[in-house]
Write a structure and sequence with these properties.
Shape: globular
CATH topology of the largest domain: Neuraminidase
CATH class of the largest domain: Mainly Beta
Low-confidence stretches: 1-54
Radius of gyration: 23 Å
Structural class: mainly beta
Number of strands: 30
Order of helices and strands: EEEEEEEEEEEEEEEEEEEEEEEEEEEEEE
Strand order of the largest sheet: 1-2-3-4-30
Mean pLDDT: 85
Length: 363
């Protein structure tokens, strides 16, 4: 493919050389040769070669983090769009030996520890930012016992305003749980909560939950859809604000790893039947990219081992993205930073961002 651009009195030609790939597969890189011609004609010479760039189709970019959260797992993330901050509630220390209570915020450049004692120690809670009431809502999780080890699951509701946690007292509430997921449906002004485990974040054979609840800022309401996803925990959800759908993928079911895709429209769940899909997994990260109108999924435990795959959901099908510099880890959480138009991924020890756009570097 040849593109001609008039730059002053010169003609610039960009010649993109796609690497060989099997039919039907998306190439992983583009080679771009940039030429100019001193005479303004179309007779090109070797001496007119100015630069050779290697452009990746998509790239995960590592962000320095000193200081930054360090966690073995059980953390949750959301994005406060009013203040332009990713909010992370950390559940364990770096070795996984102690349950902690740490609230961190990411401003696009650095992490700041904002709170260490406003909320009781717990792991596996769910959080979502309420863009109507401008508060981050947290529900449940597995609280620490006297030895600071995972103890009883909780059924409490809290909000974070950027300065302090406040416990609320709704008249109705979901049962105690851990490993559930929650997103905010901005079209209806409610947080949507699904599933979880009623006993232990670390026990894969424990009973699962498959109920759907909504939070309106004051009270919880259990929904009774005609169809629901099978019970599960350690799955992921994201809210598609263009199609007004809550998207759910994967998780740990009743003694089986799940790889199904569901959508909630506020009335009922519908199982989707994409042509291709990520493999069954649990513990993956997922968020909605509002700039490109795609759900982005990364990582997860895939039975034996951990995935470093990036996938995108457009409402009809999943597409594997051959993103470069994908971080390796065994635990993940994601949130979309709409101020910087990028997904933020935290792995427990490092921070990465992804905008789905090519990244170029000289060679």
């Amino acid at each position: 493919m040849i593109h001609r651009h008039l730059l002053g009195g010169c003609v610039a030609i960009l010649l993109c050389l796609l690497p060989f790939a099997s039919f039907g597969q998306r190439p992983t890189t583009e080679e771009i040769l940039i030429y100019t011609n001193r005479w303004g004609d179309l007779n090109f010479h070797a001496e007119d070669l100015l630069a050779l760039l290697r452009c990746d189709l998509a790239r995960w970019k590592s962000r320095p983090g000193t200081p930054q959260p360090l966690s073995f797992g059980g953390f949750s993330m959301t994005y406060d769009s009013q203040r332009g901050r990713v909010v992370l509630f950390n559940g364990t220390d770096a070795e996984g030996t102690v349950v902690v209570s740490e609230t961190w915020e990411w401003d696009g450049e650095k992490w700041t520890l904002e709170d260490t004692d406003g909320l009781s120690r717990r792991l596996g809670a769910a959080i979502a930012y309420d863009s109507v009431r401008h508060l981050t809502t947290l529900f449940g999780g597995q609280q620490a016992n006297a030895m600071q080890q995972p103890g009883a699951t909780q059924a409490d509701t809290w909000t974070w305003n950027g300065a302090a946690w406040t416990q609320l007292s709704p008249s109705t509430s979901p049962s105690a749980r851990v490993g559930h997921a929650m997103v905010f449906d901005s079209s209806r002004g409610v947080a949507v909560l699904f599933g979880g485990d009623d006993s232990d974040f670390l026990v894969l054979t424990a009973p699962r939950l498959g109920d759907t609840w909504e939070w309106n800022g004051t009270n919880w309401t259990q929904r009774a859809p005609a169809v629901s996803p099978p019970p599960r925990f350690r799955f992921a959800m994201a809210f598609d604000s263009v199609r007004n759908r809550t998207v759910l993928f994967g998780g740990q079911g009743e003694n089986v790893l799940l790889g199904d895709t569901w959508e909630w429209d506020g009335t009922n769940w519908q199982q989707k039947t994409p042509m291709q899909s990520p493999s069954a997994r649990r513990g993956h990260g997922m968020t909605y990219d509002s700039a490109r109108e795609r759900v982005v999924l990364f990582g997860g435990e895939v039975g034996v081992g951990f995935s470093d795959e990036t996938w995108e959901w457009d409402g009809t099908d999943w597409t594997p993205i051959p993103a470069t510099s994908a971080p390796t880890s065994d635990t993940w959480a994601m949130a979309y930073d709409s101020t910087h138009s990028e997904a933020v991924l935290f792995t427990g020890e490092s921070t990465h961002v992804y905008d789905g756009l090519p990244g170029c570097s000289g060679r």
